[in-house]
Amino acid sequence: MLIQFWIKNFKNFKDKLTFNFDDTNHYEFSKDCIKNDIVKTALIYGTNGCGKSNLAFAIFDIISHLTDMEITPDKYMNYINANTDRNSIAEFGYIFKFENTILRYSYGKTELRTLIFEKLEINNKVLVEYDRRNRNERYFKTNLAGSETLNTDLSQFTISVLKYIKTSTVLKDNEEKKVLFKFFNFVDSMLHFRSLDDRFYQGYETGRVDIFDYIADKHLDDFNSFLHQVKLDIPTVTAEKINGHKQLFMEFDNGKIGFYSNASTGTMTLALFYFWLKRMEEHKPSLVFIDEFDAFYHQELSESIVRQLQKLDCQVILTTHNTRLLSNDLMRPDCCFILKNGILAPLSSLTNKELREAHNIEKMYRAKVFDK
Fold first, then answer.
1. What is the rounded CA–CA span in Å between residue 342 and residue 346?
2. Which residue has the higher pLDDT, 132 or 333?
3. Are 90 and 109 in contact (CB under 8 A)?
4. Is 126 helix (H, G, I), strand (E, B) or coil?
5. Which of 95, 102, 122 is nearest to 177 (CA)?
6. Whether 248 contacts 237, CB under 8 Å
7. 74-116: pLDDT as tens digits
8. Dist. CA 45–CA 48, nearest whole Å
9. Helix-strand-coil percent breakdown of the chain, rounded to 5?
10. Are 10 and 79 in contact (CB under 8 A)?
11. E strand or H helix at 12, and its extent?
């Protein structure tokens, strides 16, 4: 699991911002939000423009150079913080825990595809390191067994040393290799998506799938059951093949109308969520980040979606403005974060008051109890 992420000099984050997933308390409620004392389900609040979306792009920057999964390069324009020297470097750091092993990975870039330095540590042992800022040092260093015969001169390239090692040699089977490939598998299985004015996804897979063809071909009955389960008041959805493609319709007593052209924005967003929910059942994700996940949902529907996501065996990060979700019946103060002035902190650390299950966290939030 990811237990810490930090970013510096990327987009609106000039100073170092740290996202701690292991700063948890021993609350005896909403335990589904925690796994092995690590935040499993997180809600992030913050005013418009504070950087919630940029935080998602920062966390998922890693897939651009370590994987061949989907990426949206246009979202990474204006890469370096505008208040710093344009020749400076954006820095990223990740700490993972795989059972009892700690893996640290850090790197710096000047743009999405241009790596300047990289460092990998497992249990405080440096296994890979390279820094292109040092012009006198042309070679990367590796202590991974099996990588000794690699050409370590990458001075003419801006590629990832880690990906180069992964694709260019067969490492010796040992504990370090096992942990390294757990890390690779984690990054390969990360998923970021949103459905606002623009709909896109990053990581997890490649290419595009028509969500309505997918639902019609594989999950139509289940899709209707899902809509009923979340108490969406729309007619039964059916499918019909037109011009070689299946299309969805809403059935009425006197006929049918097209689903795509007549469904509300909230219903369309819900269909997108359902699509990804089914995909995640087919291939287990490691970390899912949904930006503004409930922008078009009714409050009760938002709660239902959170409960659906809590059932997934992976880490989930959601950004929202819906304060009704600040309920100890659904979440907990160490899993709800506020992003403000370049600092991301859980509610549990923003007050000296002992927070208990009976407290109305939403009311406290509105009363600015957590405004440090």
1. 14
2. 333
3. yes
4. strand
5. 122
6. yes
7. 999 999 999 988 789 999 999 999 999 999 999 999 999 999 9
8. 10
9. 30, 30, 40
10. yes
11. none
DSSP letters spanning 225-256: HHHHHTT---PPEEEEEETTEEEEEEEETTEE
Helix (H, G, I), strand (E, B) or coil at 14: coil
Q: Exposure pattern of 285-322 as b/e (b: 16+ CB <10 Å)?
A: bbbbbbbbbbbbbeeebbbbbbebbeebebbbbbbbeb
Spatial distance between the Cα atoms of 172 and 147, rounded to a whole number of angstroms? 8
Write the pLDDT tens digit of every residue in 218-239.
899 999 999 888 888 888 999 9
- How many other C-beta atoms can be found within 10 angstroms of the C-beta atom of residue 193? 21
Retrieve residue 272's tokens: 């997108």
What does the block give as tokens for 219? 């999950």
- Does this model's pTM top 0.85? My answer is yes
Residue 329: CB partners within 8 Å, gap ≥ 6?
A: 29, 30
The total number of residues written for the chain in this structure: 372
pLDDT at 198 over 70: no
Whole-angstrom distance, CA of residue 205 vs CA of residue 210: 14
Residue with tokens 């998602």: 56
